[in-house]
Amino acid sequence: MVGPPGSGKTMLARRIPTILPEMTLEEALQTTKIHSIMGMTSGKHSLITTRAFRAPHHTISDSGLIGGGTYPRPGEVSLAHNGVLFLDELAEFNRHVLEVMRQPLEDGEVTISRASGSVKFPSRFMLIAATNPCPCGHANDPRRQCSCSTMQIQKYMSKISGPLLDRIDIHLEVAPVEYRDLSNKKGGESSASIRERVVRARAVQEQRFVKHKIFCNAQMSSAAIKKYCELSSESQSILNTAMEKLGLSARAYHRILKVARTIADLEGTELIKTPHILEAIQYRSLDRAYTH
Ligand SMILES: [Zn+2]
Predict the structure, then answer these.
(1) Alpha carbon distance 96, 168 (integer Å)
(2) Of 147, 204, 170, which is closest to residue 2 (Cα–Cα)?
(3) How close is the Cα of 91 to the center of ligand 1, in Å?
(4) Which domains does the chain possess?
(5) In this structure, what is the dihedral angle of CA atoms 244, 247, 250, 252, given to the nearest 10 degrees?
(6) How far is the CA of 146 from the centre of ligand 1 (A)?
(7) What is the tens place of the pLDDT at every residue in 70-105?
C-alpha cells in the first residue's frame, strides 16, 4: 500500500486477519507451537485460535525477522505463520533485511543452520507492506503540497523496488481519508460479510486443486496457471498489450493471472472475464511507475 500519512494503511492491514477464513485445528496447533517456543502462550487459554498479526519495527535485525540465535528461535516470519506480517514504512527497512526475507517468502519455511545441526520453522504468512509515496509523504496528496524533488521521490521508491516488489501480488495506492468519511457509519461492508465471500472463494479453490498438493490460487505452478487461468482472446490481447506497454516481467504476468483468477472466484464466476484481467493489471502500478 502506497499512500500519505493518515490514509488508513495500518488500519486496513490490521483488519485483514478478520476477513481471512477461521484457522483449522491443524493451523491453530502450528501457530500455538511456535508461540509456545517463545513463551508467548498463557497456560489457561493455551490454544491460539486467531490468526497472528505481526508488525515488527523497521529497525529489526535479520535474526529478529527470520529467526536465529545460538539456540535457534523463530523470528517474526514464523510468528506470523498462518497470519499476517505487516511491514510499515517499508522504505525504512534495511535493504539486507528485506533480502533475507525472500527465501521464507518463497518456500514457506526457514532453515537455520548451526554447527550442531539445522532447525526448520514454518513461515507461511501473508505479507502486507506500507510506505509513504515520498520522503515528505505527500506526493499525490490533494490536501498538501509535496516538497520533494523528482530525484528524491525516485530514490525513495527505488529502495522498495526490485526483487521484493516483484513478489508482491497487489500494489495499491491509498488515498487520504477525511475524518468525516471515517465517522460516516453508512456504506461500509462488515468484516463478517467479506469473510463469508472469502470462505466461499477458498472452498471453490480447494475443490479446484483437490488432485494437486495445493489449496489456493497463490500456490499455482505455471502448469496449473495454464490449466486454470484460461483467457478469452479479448482478455489475452489486453494482457499482451499491457505486458508490452508496461514492460512487465514474466513473474508479473503470472501474478496478474493468479490475481484475476481470485477476483473471478470472489465473484463466483468460472470464467476469467475482461474486467477481472483489467483489475489485476491495475495492481501492478509500482512496476509501471518506478522500475522503468
Ligand atoms: Zn514529498
Answers:
(1) 17
(2) 170
(3) 14
(4) 9-183 (3.40.50.300), 191-290 (no CATH)
(5) -110
(6) 4
(7) 888 999 999 999 999 999 999 899 888 888 888 898
